[in-house]
Amino acid sequence: MAQNVEAALPDKYKNMSEWYTEILERAEVIDIRYGVKGFIVYRPFGMILMKNIIKLFEEELEKTGHKPFLFPVVIPERNLRMEKEHIKGFEGEVFWIEKGGYTPLEERLALRPTSETAIYPIYALWFSSYKELPFKGYQTCAVYRYETKATRPLLRGREFLWIETHNVYFTEKEARDQTVEDAEIFYKVATEKLGIPFLHLKREEYDKFPGAVDTYAFDTLLPDGRVLQIGTTHYLGTNFTKVFNVVVHDEEGNLVNPHSTCYGIGLSRILASILLIHGDEYGAVLPFDIAPTQIVIIPIYKAGFENKEIDKYCNEIHESLKNEGYRVIFDNSEKTPGEKYYYYDMRGVPFRIEIGPKEVQTSKVTVFRRDTRSRETIPLEQLKEYIVKTKDEILKNLREKAEKRLKDNIIEARTKEELIEAFKKEGRKIYKVFFCGRKECADEIKSVLEGLETRGTPINEKGEGPCVWCGEPGHICYLAKAY
Amino acid sequence: MAQNVEAALPDKYKNMSEWYTEILERAEVIDIRYGVKGFIVYRPFGMILMKNIIKLFEEELEKTGHKPFLFPVVIPERNLRMEKEHIKGFEGEVFWIEKGGYTPLEERLALRPTSETAIYPIYALWFSSYKELPFKGYQTCAVYRYETKATRPLLRGREFLWIETHNVYFTEKEARDQTVEDAEIFYKVATEKLGIPFLHLKREEYDKFPGAVDTYAFDTLLPDGRVLQIGTTHYLGTNFTKVFNVVVHDEEGNLVNPHSTCYGIGLSRILASILLIHGDEYGAVLPFDIAPTQIVIIPIYKAGFENKEIDKYCNEIHESLKNEGYRVIFDNSEKTPGEKYYYYDMRGVPFRIEIGPKEVQTSKVTVFRRDTRSRETIPLEQLKEYIVKTKDEILKNLREKAEKRLKDNIIEARTKEELIEAFKKEGRKIYKVFFCGRKECADEIKSVLEGLETRGTPINEKGEGPCVWCGEPGHICYLAKAY
Prior knowledge:
The structure is a homodimer.
Chain A: H1 16-26, E1 30-31, E2 41-42, H2 44-63, E3 67-68, E4 74-76, H3 77-80, H4 84-90, E5 95-100, E6 103-111, H5 116-126, E7 135-144, E8 159-169, H6 172-191, E9 199-202, E10 214-221, E11 227-237, H7 239-243, E12 248-249, E13 255-256, E14 259-265, H8 267-278, E15 295-299, H9 307-323, E16 328-330, H10 337-346, E17 351-355, H11 357-362, E18 364-369, E19 374-379, H12 383-408, E20 410-412, H13 416-426, E21 430-435, H14 439-448, E22 453-458, E23 464-466, E24 473-480
Helix pairs in contact in A: 2-6, 2-8
């Protein structure tokens, strides 16, 4: 895995696709050479990063009363077929197992594309009284969809990692409130801890999760101007509890179907977003908390100065930072400092501590900050305080840049002419318009404006006006090309 | 989920099967009603327990330099067929995916029964020099085997959870040493942290992992006298690196195939072992470190004494134990104390703190210890110290009992007559004999002695003598009926 210093990555805003392919390989995030379309290998760097992201979401889910469980990866065909809209939505993209060993199975088994139809038949067994509700459960797992569209590593795969919650409530209000809590959880982790801003949207009627009453989605903006759905939460009403006969008795003893929600956190896509949104021409730029290596110490040996002195000084710093609980490496391998810089920059290590003779002699450290690429020499005794303070600044910096870019890329248009004109001039951006809600208009917009889709109406902003396309009464809606 | 106090569980030594079925249901460990043979649902209690077990193993693997990765669940048929012994061993028990949506796949995909054939083609791309070795990687995942034998929840399923490591070394010695380290890791977690003793055995030639040079296994003893393989580690020689063309150059620039090992930690079976080995007629008995709830506080209200006083006292204890980082519950629900005792006993909560008027008035706490079912009243100020000390005692007690039982259940036999006589008298136990190593003898023993199998030769004990069955020269070997 010895790597020499290679050329910088291309500009991600000009050539996102090449930038992305390069970083996945050079930082050893994933391996795309598995040989089965839509399936990738998480390499150690990518997997550690993924585990750190998972931990943040699971902690937040557990804080809000969600319990982990794990359902099988296979779903019997009869279960999958029970909810009519649901099977219509997924039938074309399900992997089917038809044989075990040499024996045809009695019933075909689907690899889960999502787990409602695995879970609800069991919920029917678990609950019998309103007193047992609410029930909030989640699983972290992979799901499988036989995508017919072009697949892209982490962005659109046939196997992808996610967290799915499946919650059951006695009342509609509680269930609807859950979709709000889900958005809060998403904000707390994605934005506040990972620096990823997103649009919180209610999807249009024709764009809902198959079987849902209402679908809310979290879309983030990628460097090429397309948006990426990184999470969704759905109010399912009593659609699934009815079909799967989940019944509880209320206080008077009447039997009723409870209300339910599901929530999908797109882990693979969130990992991709972190790389794409924060990265630069030197590689990944990572928030401190999730970085697989948080600090690297690099000795700068000089002819005429005792290397052992430098190593000793580095070792002391290494020990002291390890004792703080940081993931820190002291790299005194034979590679040149330049090769090491290249290697750790590519992997987004937030702090690099460079130690040469001068640092040893003056009891100082030179700290390189990955996000701003700036160097600072500070007294060794201030190092710990510097890291505590600066790691938060890094996150703030990454988040503010990303939030500004999202805001700056939203363009308003009031009429068809304005929209067409703006799209000609600006190309792939997010367009804020009024929209009538009819699929016919959405289809025309998509066809005329090179794939621009209606992404839904923002949750935190109300407004009415004539549809940008047909002039009929409409609501606020964002348009964007999506992955 | 309201439960009344039910009858105690049966004696697990007399009727393990019923005891086991009952505890899985009453403690809500798993749900066996999923409706697909060999597939089960991990309920929150079981899943939290599983996550705690996984954490212990992953920590130990990472301490010994293993890095996490994740390979796809599907393996292309051509890969699976490359190693001749391997496919022979697994072909009959692979689930095949042949269709995506409505489209037949170009190549059949197997659900991974184990991941060698997924991983080695990628290892061929990752390594080119001896300098890049050793490489130690692991994944925590589910594997799939179309078992034709009777399935049993957690003990033998068609989907089960495990950790698999796949390590590559330049030299044979390093690879062989890895199988020793694997056993040490297993001992550190299974025995020292979970209280599960095991026999460390080298499997007979005809009993090896398909494609391995040497197979080492960890067998534990269940209450019914059968043994359960809960882990294995294999020295694979260069079998897999040759077939999959994993090649590195050595110091002189020659191209050579490195040596490799794989190691499987049977998570589902370890969970079952913990329940079966430590449990009693009141339910699960859990080591403190992995217990989903470690301490439960139960108020014992009395007529004529202010309930609020008791609640206040309980709340203070609750807060103070939470601050210590313990997983602690204060249960002041409307259930009777008896119902609560039943509920938490079933789930193996190590400490139950009972607080009545007397405890409040005297600043004391009554602590019930789950493993010994003994009560002690101690001053509140000594509680923390008591828990720190006693949680280790619990583990020690569980471990010593399990170790004694394993030891007491090993019976030596020197001749065929002695063995048959002992088996008639003792039934399902572990028999220590000399064995010639020939499959013919093993098959005869199995057929004559109701399924008694050769489980291999102990690693830490050498000895030679005439085969218990045929009299030819033999080595020490354990015989037992296995799951």
